[in-house]
Amino acid sequence: MFANVLTGWRRPGVPLAEALARAVREAVLDGRLRVGDRLPSERRLAAELGVSRGTIVAAFSALREEGWLVTGRGSGSGVRLPRDLGERYAPLSVDGQDILDLRRAVPAAPRSIVTEAVTRALGRSARLLLESGESGAGLPELRELIARRHTAEGLATRPEQVLVTSGARAALALLVAHLAPRRTVVENPAFFDTLATLRRSGTRLVPVRVTTRGWDPGQLTTAFREAAGGIAVLVPDFQNPTGALMESDVRREVAELAARHRVTVIVDETTSDLDLRDHPAPEPRVPRSITIGSLSKSVWGGLRIGWIRGPAELVRALLLNPVSGLHTPPPMEQLVACEIIPLLGELLVRRRAELRHQRDHLAAALGGDDRWTFSLPPGGLTLWLRLNGVSGETVARRAAEAGLNLLPGPAFSPDGTLTDRLRVPYTAPAETLDRVVEHLRRAYRS
Fold it and tell me: What is the separation of C-alpha 260 from the centre of its chain, rounded to a whole number of angstroms?
């Protein structure tokens, strides 16, 4: 009986039609109702659930309007997933009824692209499944696709210069374990997972100040000198969390400082696809740097595909490291990535347009308020707010008490500074961002 799928759907204080519509949505998302399933007639369902037919009609009407049901003449109602839900950037957990969780700026999967890619990958997996499953540096096809993409962007790359990893964090962890630096130049602020990876390695962090306007040139010079013989981990393309874009002359200066002080530069390109300028174009890479990237921000973090691009001899050396295999994704995931990468151009057009709209919407909602200041970033996923007269930790704590989770500045600082900062992602839909701004204003007032 259909009623067994919706056990416990009645909620105190919630109108029956609204509670029933919500229960059907949750059943679809949980898989208790499958896309394409036919629902009982309104009369029969009313009898099963012990409600009036008018309640069923109202609930079904709301679900059809939202795109959860489709009704044909004489064929009843069938379950479907709304198109905007299946293709939107933000995961569902971001904008829950009770909690808005924006501590991570991450996407949901582009549902149709991923499901179709999985189907195609499965259809041509026979040879792969007859092999050992030990992919070493990665599937040759995937390494070729990644190398070809780098080459098309102006960085000539051969497949043997690519090592496939289970995400950008795995790539960084493997490089840090291999290079074992005593000192590391790191941005202030920097992505909190990058800081955690470096701290666990035992390296000493040498910070360089970054603002929405760029990298502090004086601190760059000092930091590279202090980290002589070590490494530098930089995000020159839409830096997380500031959104800053490193200018070409600064990139050349970084390369010169690295050569002078024997510093190995690792460039994290995780956000480089999220160029929100009117005419997106890849910037020149930092010369002689090692780059790491992934599909986590452009496609989906659940597809654990990342890579290291560097000299072929480095890739060979990394493969000799006994922990290398622990950082390699399963071959089937790599085969799915082979199906998705050729579609990245089309996908990025949609995702950039969505993010650009949400960035501008959030900026407009926050603008003209003397409680904070910010600059509109040319790309990336977040606004970096500077708060006036109150600490980011205070506002984040008060917002959390009201149901909005954000990360304050010190979470991104290697030395505990940036106490007046707050990171606000614009990955959520516009209506959710309006709720975010309301929470922020109340938290600031309190």
Answer: 35
Residues 328 and 198 in one domain: yes
Inform me whether the pLDDT recorded for 75 exceeds 70.
no
Q: For residue range 253-287, what is the model confidence (pLDDT) as tens digits?
A: 999 999 999 999 999 999 999 999 999 988 899 99
- CA 403 to chain CA centroid, Å, is 22
Choose the final residue of a domain: 293, 328, 343.
343
99 plus 143 within the same structural domain: no
Check pLDDT > 80 for residue 72.
no
User: Nearest CA to 239 among 39, 381, 67, 371?
Assistant: 381
Closest by Cα among 41, 413, 410 to 205: 413
- DSSP H/E element including 123: helix 111-123
Query: What is this structure's pTM?
Result: 0.86
Residue 74 CA to residue 94 CA, distance in Å, equals 38
* Residue 361 vs residue 35, higher pLDDT: 361
CATH number at residue 14: 1.10.10.10
CA distance 126 to 334: 14
Which structural domain, as residue segments, surrounds residue 167?
113-343
Is 227 among the domain residues? Answer: yes
Query: What tokens were used for 107?
Result: 């996407």
pLDDT at 74: 61
Parallel, antiparallel or unpaired: strands 382-387 and 214-215: unpaired
Mark which of 343, 377, 392 sits at the end of a domain: 343
Instruction: Quote the tokens at residue 72.
Output: 């044909």
Q: Are residues 129 and 260 in the same domain?
A: yes
The CATH number given to whatever domain includes residue 333 is: 3.40.640.10
In the predicted structure, residue 4 carries a pLDDT above the cut 80 = no
Highest mean pLDDT among 14-28, 181-195, 320-334: 181-195
